[in-house]
User: Fold SnoaL-like polyketide cyclase from Phaeobacter inhibens.
Amino acid sequence: MQLTPKEMLNRWLQELWVHGNNSILDELLADEAGAVGLIPDIAMKKAEFAVLAEAMRALCSDIQVQITHAVEAGDWVAVRIRVDAVGIHESRPVQATGQIMARAVQGKFHELISQFDFLTLFECLGQMPENTLPICLTGQQLTWTSPALKA
Assistant:
């Protein structure tokens, strides 16, 4: 029995992001498929997804991904996700959200359009100051204070 696009996307999220199973990429992503939106100016392919998932798992443990909202229309599915995790370095709780639109044909994704709230993720991890967005909306600039980051 073939999975619906929503079921496929949930399987993708659980296997790749929660369990670190990169083989799901071959199972659910068409060879020519690319994803846009997740990282600006980069159309991600299978290899980039594996690297991104590995980087996330290096920053976070106990990753849980939940689809909180979903709309399906034919081959397309649009979901809102919530990610809960624990930051590796200081055991900080992490919670961030994202959205994914995906088109599935014959059991494989052919198009993925994603957005993820990396700003909140990095705030939760302590890599960005709390309230970075509201501070930036005032017109203020963030300045790096670490000598290692100064040019």
